[in-house]
């Protein structure tokens, strides 16, 4: 019987990215190989970790690619976010999801956090930067937001960063509209902000969603 060398153990399961310092190797899958590769901190990462949610949300807000799609799809079924918590810059700790029937999955939480970073700003809050892996000098920097007293929960997103002409081809917006439960706070924020600031969404799929939201809201009230 032949045994694998430790240097080749688990290599077939690595994501096809640029090297061991790439956060994708920490975040895409939960495997023993990841823990070996990134010891002694490998067990602190993985798809459900705060830092991986933050990194993937920032990355996918810049460009939704195949890695974002893999993370979103692979972590959707039966992968509820622990204790209904939300990472990283959300207004509420996702207690509201209980009213919608089920908690957000890890993949759905990525969509919500990506949307919030992509379309919103945090007014009156200060960016705070943190190294993804402090044990790795090549690790990228993550950005969080805190109010002047140091509390992130007080950073209320204002969602007005919209390129209206590209909304119907925007992959993040397409997934939000296909699964509005996952990104409900950001969708509602966008609709309300667009109406308040006079952003014309007519003729877009998002505009249709906002119109239906407004009509349903008027019925409830």
Description:
With 221 residues, the protein is mostly helical. It has one domain. It is 38% helix and 7% strand. The chain is built from eight helices and four strands, in the order αααααββββααα. A two-stranded antiparallel ribbon has the order 1-4. A two-stranded antiparallel ribbon has the order 2-3. Helix 3 packs across helix 5. The longest helix is centred in the C-terminal third of the chain and has 16 residues. About 17% of the residues have low confidence.
Please give a quick description of this structure:
The chain is mostly helical and 221 residues long.
Any chance you could write out the topology, listing elements then pairs?
Elements: H1 24-27, H2 32-37, H3 50-62, H4 66-74, H5 106-119, E1 121-122, E2 126-131, E3 141-146, E4 157-158, H6 171-178, H7 184-197, H8 205-220
Antiparallel strand pairs: 1-4, 2-3
Largest sheet: 2 strands, antiparallel
pLDDT < 50 stretches: 6-18, 78-101
**Rg, Å, rounded:** 19 Å
Question: What is the ordering of alpha helices and beta strands?
Answer: HHHHHEEEEHHH
Query: What is the general shape?
Result: globular
Would you count the extended β strands for me?
4
Structural class: mainly alpha
Output the strand order for the largest sheet: 1-4
Number of domains: 1
Helix content: 25-40%
SS element count, helices: 8
- Strand percentage: 5-15%
For the residues shown, what is the average pLDDT?
78
Distance between the termini: 72 Å
């Amino acid at each position: 019987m032949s045994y694998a060398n430790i240097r080749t153990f688990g290599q077939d399961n690595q994501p096809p990215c640029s090297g061991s310092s790439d956060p994708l190797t920490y975040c895409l899958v939960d495997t023993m190989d990841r823990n070996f590769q990134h010891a002694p901190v490998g067990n602190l990462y993985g798809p459900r970790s705060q830092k991986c949610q933050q990194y993937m949300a920032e990355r996918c807000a810049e460009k939704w690619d195949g890695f974002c799609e893999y993370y979103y799809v692979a972590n959707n079924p039966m992968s509820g976010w622990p204790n209904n918590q939300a990472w990283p810059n959300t207004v509420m700790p996702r207690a509201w999801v209980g009213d919608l029937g089920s908690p957000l999955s890890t993949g759905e939480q990525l969509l919500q956090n990506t949307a919030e970073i992509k379309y919103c700003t945090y007014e009156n809050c200060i960016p705070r930067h943190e190294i993804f892996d402090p044990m790795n000098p090549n690790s990228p920097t993550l950005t969080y937001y805190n109010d002047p007293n140091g509390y992130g929960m007080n950073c209320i997103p204002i969602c007005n960063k919209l390129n209206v002409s590209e909304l119907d081809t925007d992959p993040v917006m397409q997934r939000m509209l296909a699964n509005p439960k996952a990104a409900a706070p950001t969708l509602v924020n966008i609709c309300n902000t667009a109406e308040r600031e006079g952003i014309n969404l007519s003729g877009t799929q998002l505009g249709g969603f906002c119109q239906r939201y407004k009509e349903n809201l008027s019925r409830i009230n």
